[in-house]
Every structure is written in C-alpha cells, then in structure tokens.
Amino acid sequence: MTTTLRGLAGLLGFLVLWEVFSRSGIVAQQYFPPPSTVLVRFVELLGDRGFLLDLIASVLAWAIALGISIAIAVPAGLLLGSVRAIRVATRAIIEFLRPIPSVALIPLAVVLVGAGPETKISLAVYASVWPILFNTIYAFDEIDPVMVDTARSFGLGRGRVMFTVALPNSAPFVLTGIRMSAAVALILVVSTEFLAGGSGLGSFVLDASTGAGRMDLVLAGTLVAGIVGYLINEALELLHRRGLRWAAVGTEAS
After folding, report:
1. What value does the mean pLDDT take over residues 133-150?
2. CA-based diameter of the chain, in Å?
3. pLDDT per position as a tens digit, 146-155
4. Per-residue pLDDT, 199
5. pTM of the prediction?
6. Which alpha helices (DSSP H) does the chain contain, by range?
7. Where in the chain are the domains?
8. Non-local CB neighbours of 225 within 8 Å, separated by 6+ positions
C-alpha cells in the first residue's frame, strides 16, 4: 500500500510540474499542451470509434508478434542451450543479427513483405525473439548439474530430462525474457506504424502530428500506448508471481 501511495505521489508531482511548466509560457501550449488538456483528449479518444480500431489493430499485431516470438525462441533456446555444438556453430550468425536495429529494417521489410500488418508483425518478431532466446539459453547455465545427473541416474533420457528438469527450471528465466520482449514488440509495432503507415496507434500519432499539428492528440495517443505497455507488464508480473510462485519461494529460501 505504501509503495502504491508513493507511486501515485510521484505521478501527481510529475503532472503538477508538467502543468506549471506548460502554462509558464516558456514553450507555447500549442507545442507542449498541459496535462489538463491532454487528459481531456485522452478521455475523448476512449469514446472515438476510429481511435479504438487503431488501438485494437496495434494490440492485435503485438499479441500475434509476441506469440510467434515465443513459438520460435523457446524451442530454439532449449536446443541451443542443451546442445553445445549447435550453440557454438550458430554463435557468430546470432551475434551478427542481434545488434541490427529493427527500425532500420523497415524499408527492407516494406519491399519484401509489403506495407500491411505483416510488416510490423515481422519486425516486432525479429526484435522480440532475442530476449526470450538468450534468457532461455542462459537458463540452462543456471541449472544445477546434480539435478540433471540425478534424473539420468533414474534412467530418464534426454527428452524426459528436458521436459521434467530443464524446462521447469528455465521457466522463470523464459518468462522474464517474455516480459522484456513484450515491451520491445509493442515499441516496434507502434514505431513501424509511425514510419511505414497503416492502421494503429503509430499511424494515429503520425496523422495528429502532421497537418494541424495537434500535439494534444499526439500526447494523448502516446499516453494510451504507455498505459497499454504498463498493463501488459503488470499482467505478466502477476503471472510470474502466481504462476511461478514455487520459483519465487525457492529464490527466497536460497
């Protein structure tokens, strides 16, 4: 409760400072509207059908991208983490591809995939695969070898050891990677919409910033994106705490 109150106090303080600065005249309110104006636009947008369709388009693209990333990265991470020869053989290509900024690939993706939803989904998948993949790989380095040896001493094969020992112990690391990738995927979806067009929050912000230059709508749309990201992270944190309660207990005990 105390943490929540402190968080609300910090948020309120930030809004007050923002309001004072915006109304001080240092910057024209046209370019930096106060939060009182932005919050009004925020409420109005929640009743705007067109904006809600844009919001749904972004969230749907995010969900598809994250699902594909999990389906690719978790099995690949399990394979690379358990078979050292494959991990060493693929290290160079992985380390070459991983640092490439996904936003820089937008022109290439538009040419290869087109300007539809596939572009933002593809780029979001490319960007969000890496945190899940590396967390899954590194999870194997944290597994107690005694647990693996004990499972093998009971006659369990590689596959049984993978699913009864390795995967349960890797779950907290994998879920942490998913939380990181969830934020990355949302950023890439909105950024691609902003730069490549199409429906979504990014396109809404782009349209609001051009023409009449409605910065109040730009900030209100950005606020919605931030709230969506916050809610996603909170949901994954709750899943982590409740779904992997045994891992948290084990960590506290150690």
Report:
1. 79
2. 75
3. 777 677 776 7
4. 84
5. 0.84
6. 2-23, 35-45, 49-82, 84-97, 106-113, 117-141, 145-153, 158-161, 167-196, 201-209, 215-243, 245-253
7. 34-249
8. 58, 186, 190, 201
CATH superfamily of 34-249: MetI-like (1.10.3720.10)
DSSP 33-93: --HHHHHHHHHHHTT-HHHHHHHHHHHHHHHHHHHHHHHHHHHHHHHHHH-HHHHHHHHHH
Angle at 124 between CA 64 and CA 233, to 5 degrees: 75
Of all residues in the chain, the percent with pLDDT exceeding 70 is 89
Distance (Å, whole) CA 211 – CA 199:
18
In whole angstroms, give the CA distance from residue 254 to residue 249: 9
Mean pLDDT over the full length of the chain? 84
Residue 249 has pLDDT above 60, yes or no: no
